[in-house]
Design a protein that fits this description.
By secondary structure, the protein is of the alpha/beta class. Helix content is 24%, strand content 25%. It has 7 helices and 15 strands. The longest helix has 17 residues. The chain is globular, with a radius of gyration of 18 Å.
């Protein structure tokens, strides 16, 4: 039996827990501003520099909340239900922002695999921290004119897109919000080392590794969502596909190179984050480095 076949046969798992609803963000009815940053959990100087740049940017531009795009604790998520690293790497760095922070799980939060206990420990940690919201592996919340849907792409990577795919399809179709935003860890399109969904690591048709299961989940966003935010590749990128704006913001603590050549509105291997404003006229995205310098800023008009 091949290694991949063994993995597939050994993928028995508990059922995916029902998605939850997180507290609303108090924002203007027709405008919301927020920061998206991922792959932060290294506890290094770059992470702290990026966090300071977030604080400075939010003071100047305004922010209603922050989204952490997974890989919140390296290298293997929480090492126990009371792991002190969670407080040092997350609470000490992001609670001082004074903003609600919403998080999703990344592959490292599962110990780079399928360690459900570590994921549950992090969800329980978030429940104890008043500034941090991650009530379940998948959840939703309302932020001014936006409905935001947080998904667990690592679960989909290993175990398949259902039942998240059905939930996300129904939730996006039912949303009457002016903006529909989906937040996950793995990218749909990326010029970084991991590449595009369904062909991760340059592979195609390889069970699990190429991300074919994640593709089934992310394809739901096409024609339904306005914006998909992800990390995984440690860079800053802005592409678009199937009517969805795609932002990769996985440079919260370190960088990996830009390797692909797919057309992009912006891409840079630099520690930093994305500041995003969604309003009645369109979406503005500014990519800011760890020193607070704006690397790129652009606006797109609303598609609907």
């Amino acid at each position: 039996m091949s290694g991949w076949a063994a993995l597939l046969l050994g993928c028995g798992a508990p059922d995916f827990p029902p998605p939850a609803v997180a507290p609303w963000v108090v924002a203007e009815a027709d405008r919301v501003r927020f920061v998206a940053v991922g792959d932060v959990g290294k506890g290094n100087a770059s992470q702290r520099h990026v966090a300071r740049a977030i604080a400075e940017t939010c003071t100047v531009r305004g922010c209603d909340f922050v989204v952490l795009l997974g890989d919140n604790l390296y290298p293997r998520g929480m090492e126990g239900p009371e792991d002190p690293q969670a407080g040092l790497v997350l609470t000490d760095v992001y609670a001082p922002l004074g903003l609600p922070v919403y998080a999703v799980l990344g592959n490292h939060d599962y110990a780079h695999g399928r360690d459900d206990a570590r994921a549950e420990w992090q969800i329980a940690f978030a429940d104890r921290e008043p500034w941090l919201h991650m009530p379940a592996r998948a959840y939703s919340f309302r932020a001014g004119p936006a409905d935001v849907f947080a998904i667990d792409t690592t679960w989909a990577f290993w175990r398949g897109s259902e039942p998240q795919q059905s939930w996300l399809t129904a939730a996006l179709d039912a949303s009457a919000a002016p903006w529909r935003v989906v937040v996950g860890h793995h990218p749909m399109r990326s010029n970084g080392p991991h590449g595009d969904v369904g062909a991760y690591e340059g592979l195609s048709g390889v069970p699990i590794a190429s991300g074919t299961r994640v593709k089934g989940l992310l394809d739901v966003t096409c024609g339904r969502a306005d914006l998909y935010l992800s990390g995984h590749d440690h860079s800053l990128q802005w592409q678009s596909a199937c009517g969805v704006e795609l932002i990769v913001s996985g440079a919260g603590a370190s960088t990996t190179p830009i390797e692909g050549d797919a057309p992009s509105r912006f891409e840079r291997a630099a520690e930093g984050f994305a500041w995003i404003e969604l309003g009645s006229e369109g979406m503005t995205a500014a990519f800011v480095d760890q020193h607070g310098a704006v690397l790129h800023e652009d606006r797109v008009r609303r598609a609907r």
